[in-house]
């Protein structure tokens, strides 16, 4: 069937309406799909002092201090300079365009060029969910799945748990919203629609650009999986019998086609890959990544028993509400995992996905994806790829579920219903009995409550004792089967089983009604899961980084030419430290610290000698911020501001951002640790990627207290030839004055070679894809005409 079929078009329209309904809090209510309640309720200086926070989901704090901050920076950069390049906001200067976590090459980032921030943010998310839903719809329909299971699979995929839990980060959604489109294009080409040849690398390239490097690997695994499926069709004697030489030739031809698609996709995404891969390996050389170099010695990040504990948690993916919720306690931590790593797309679909792996009729693509999505997280690769690999299981599981519902016999479905119902009934009976014991003997859980509060008090937000107590009480309450946390998904599971039984009826009408009712149950399940995780915030109650007395003082005292360091609270960092790393960026105040996966090899490592006034001063740090009353601030710093949220100190040993040395001896003396005479140089443009320095006469060397990076160039304003800046012994920027005997204006620009090479490669590859795609389509049409 094709999209011109009325029922298919109607099904797609109905799915789109459901997706729009999911976004009705924004479309109708004016709310934002963003965790701004965390910022305004739990973080200084925005939170109320001496008040317990009211926050739905604190787990997604990275969305507040990373993902949103990246897009604020991008929007400012687009409007000021037209592109994202260098950033002075964190780490003393970093190649922000090469930050794989920033997703600066995703299409939704371009919305920030011409739309207001929240409009671009929300519309981008809505667009990505619609793309994911439509792609899965077409992919399943292209595999001759009937409409109910196409709709079910499309909506379950659009709202799957990995999209939901990482929705603010967008890594999963931004990348894998395009993967079903790539799979659809591969299938369409295999069915003779040669015009789709060029679409395959285009969709893979969009998947690369929409995610970080991690999800690019997941995309590659998916394409390898469908190649394995096609290869298996050629090899399997059940499909055809051909001579060995012809089979080898066919396999090589198939491999060549996929290799061409892959290389072209890499070329299309070269503008992202070249700088981001380079920045990743430079950052990786510092050995700072917690996931890769872990808290535990050995090959697993949290100990040698991690894979066994992780494996033990797999059955709970069928009913993840028992693992905790975002306003209680993360039970998955007991399995050496986290609540982020849930693979859910409906209880019955997940169960069928687990079982379908062993079913011979299950598509090879689904089996390979399920296998890789479940097995690889148990290997040492989890250090690099994390359990985000579950997204592969979800993708394969949805295909396996839809195929099972389409092709399994009535007897098979009845057998599954009976076994599942019996196990579920036994589980409900045991759970009910245990709940009654807890009801009549509530003191049983007191030791557990005490232990959780003792451990939780040392967490990032453990400072809020009342909030921690409520979370612990929620957990204990959720042990009971009649808790809404358990009862609602349990009722939906029971309803889904009843609908599944109706679907296995002998009567056609009953089967049709049962199918659509089961679709409704699955959509309700994923909707319930998403509603418990996703946060919609009121922009009036929870504004986007509003001005405070502290932020205004920082903007005035530090300004564009200064830089701050932060002394963090030793226990309640997220709650007590003012302006946690990255959050000064929206105010235009630079910091020597930051919180990112990608860290530059620069003047100072993150949090290195945070309170050392001399060392920080030489890196251009002019001020220090810390929590009120911090007794450990070194005496060299001078307090200039105090509030209930923040103490601000001036650094008397600061060195100007742009400094001139009269001669080589003074320059060498400075980098030897001395303090020779220095001349402050004024920078006038205030841009990130382009600066004008007003250099007085008598300056032989110019030093900029920012991390040196490939692409920084300088020249006298009247000159035509650019020269690269030098890397100073302390990793700052250094270059000789072209005309030391006279006052002049020195121009600096950031022109990274990998950015240029990436865009040239991407543009060239795009032209190549269009040419090859046109040739393939035209040659196929001619061949068809000649055969006719």
From TrEMBL:
Keyword set, alphabetical order: Membrane, Transmembrane, Transmembrane helix
Transmembrane segments: 12-34, 120-140, 171-190, 202-228, 258-281, 339-358, 364-382, 389-405, 417-440, 452-469, 481-504, 516-536, 757-778
Keyword Transmembrane found: yes
Keyword Protein biosynthesis belongs to the record: no
Domain of life: Bacteria
Name of the protein described by the UniProt record: Uncharacterized protein
The species this protein was found in: Luteolibacter yonseiensis
């Amino acid at each position: 069937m094709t999209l011109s079929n009325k029922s298919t078009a109607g099904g797609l329209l109905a799915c789109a309406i459901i997706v729009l309904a999911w976004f009705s809090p924004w479309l109708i209510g004016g709310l934002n799909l963003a965790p701004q309640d965390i910022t305004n309720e739990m973080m200084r200086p925005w939170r109320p002092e001496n008040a317990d926070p009211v926050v739905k989901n604190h787990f997604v704090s990275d969305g507040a201090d990373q993902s949103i901050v990246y897009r604020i920076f991008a929007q400012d950069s687009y409007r000021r300079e037209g592109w994202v390049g260098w950033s002075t906001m964190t780490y003393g200067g970093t190649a922000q365009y090469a930050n794989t976590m920033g997703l600066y090459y995703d299409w939704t980032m371009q919305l920030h060029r011409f739309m207001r921030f929240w409009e671009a943010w929300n519309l981008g998310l809505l667009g990505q969910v619609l793309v994911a839903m439509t792609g899965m719809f077409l992919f399943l329909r292209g595999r001759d799945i009937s409409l109910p299971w196409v709709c079910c699979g499309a909506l379950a995929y659009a709202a799957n748990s990995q999209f939901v839990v990482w929705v603010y980060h967008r890594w999963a959604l931004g990348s894998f919203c395009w993967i079903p489109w790539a799979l659809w294009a591969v299938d369409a080409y295999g069915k003779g629609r040669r015009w789709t040849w060029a679409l395959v690398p285009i969709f893979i390239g969009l998947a690369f650009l929409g995610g970080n490097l991690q999800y690019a690997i997941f995309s590659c695994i998916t394409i390898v999986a469908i190649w394995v499926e096609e290869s298996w069709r050629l090899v399997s004697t059940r499909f055809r019998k051909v001579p060995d030489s012809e089979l080898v030739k066919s396999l090589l031809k198939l491999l060549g086609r996929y290799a061409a698609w892959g290389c072209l996709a890499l070329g299309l995404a070269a503008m992202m890959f070249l700088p981001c891969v380079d920045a990743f390996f430079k950052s990786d050389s510092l050995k700072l990544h917690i996931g890769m170099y872990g808290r535990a010695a050995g090959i697993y990040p949290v100990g040698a028993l991690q894979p066994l504990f992780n494996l033990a948690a797999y059955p709970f993916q069928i009913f993840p509400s028992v693992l905790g919720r975002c306003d209680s306690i993360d039970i998955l931590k007991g399995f050496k995992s986290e609540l982020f790593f849930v693979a859910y797309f409906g209880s019955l679909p997940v169960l069928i996905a687990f079982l379908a792996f062993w079913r011979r009729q299950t598509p090879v693509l689904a089996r390979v994806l399920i296998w890789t999505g479940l097995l690889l997280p148990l290997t040492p690769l989890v250090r690099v790829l994390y359990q985000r690999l579950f997204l592969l299981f979800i993708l394969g599981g949805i295909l396996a579920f839809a195929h099972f519902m389409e092709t399994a016999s009535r007897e098979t479905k009845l057998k599954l219903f009976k076994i599942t119902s019996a196990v579920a009934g036994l589980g409900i009976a045991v759970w009910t009995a245990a709940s009654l014991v807890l009801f009549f003997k509530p003191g049983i859980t007191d030791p557990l409550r005490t232990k959780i509060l003792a451990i939780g008090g040392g967490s990032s937000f453990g400072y809020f004792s009342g909030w921690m107590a409520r979370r612990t009480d929620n957990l204990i309450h959720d042990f009971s089967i009649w808790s809404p946390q358990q009862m609602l998904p349990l009722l939906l599971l029971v309803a889904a089983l009843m609908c599944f039984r109706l679907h296995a009826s002998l009567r056609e009408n009953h089967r049709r009604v049962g199918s659509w009712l089961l679709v409704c149950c699955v959509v309700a399940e994923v909707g319930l899961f998403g509603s418990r995780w996703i946060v919609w915030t009121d922009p009036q109650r929870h504004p986007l980084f509003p001005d405070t007395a502290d932020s205004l003082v920082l903007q005035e005292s530090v300004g564009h030419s200064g830089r701050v360091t932060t002394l963090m609270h030793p226990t309640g960092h997220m709650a007590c430290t003012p302006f946690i790393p990255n959050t000064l960026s929206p105010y235009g105040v630079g910091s020597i610290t930051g919180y990112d996966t990608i860290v530059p090899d620069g003047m100072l490592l993150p949090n290195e000698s945070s309170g050392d006034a001399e060392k920080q001063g030489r890196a251009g740090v002019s001020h220090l911020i810390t929590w009120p009353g911090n007794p450990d601030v070194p005496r060299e710093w001078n307090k200039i501001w105090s509030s209930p949220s923040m103490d601000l100190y001036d650094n008397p040993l600061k060195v100007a951002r742009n400094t001139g040395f009269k001669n080589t001896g003074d320059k060498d003396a400075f980098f030897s640790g001395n303090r020779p005479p220095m001349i402050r140089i004024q920078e006038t443009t205030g841009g990130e990627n382009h600066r004008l320095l007003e250099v007085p006469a008598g300056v032989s060397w110019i030093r900029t207290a920012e991390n040196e990076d490939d692409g920084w160039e300088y020249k006298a304003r009247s000159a035509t030839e650019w020269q690269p800046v030098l890397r100073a012994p302390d990793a700052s920027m250094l270059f000789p004055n072209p005309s030391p005997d006279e006052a002049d204006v020195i121009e600096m620009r950031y022109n990274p070679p990998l950015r240029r090479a990436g865009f040239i490669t991407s543009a060239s590859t795009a032209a190549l894809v269009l040419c090859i795609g046109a040739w393939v389509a035209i040659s196929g049409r001619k061949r068809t005409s000649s055969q006719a």
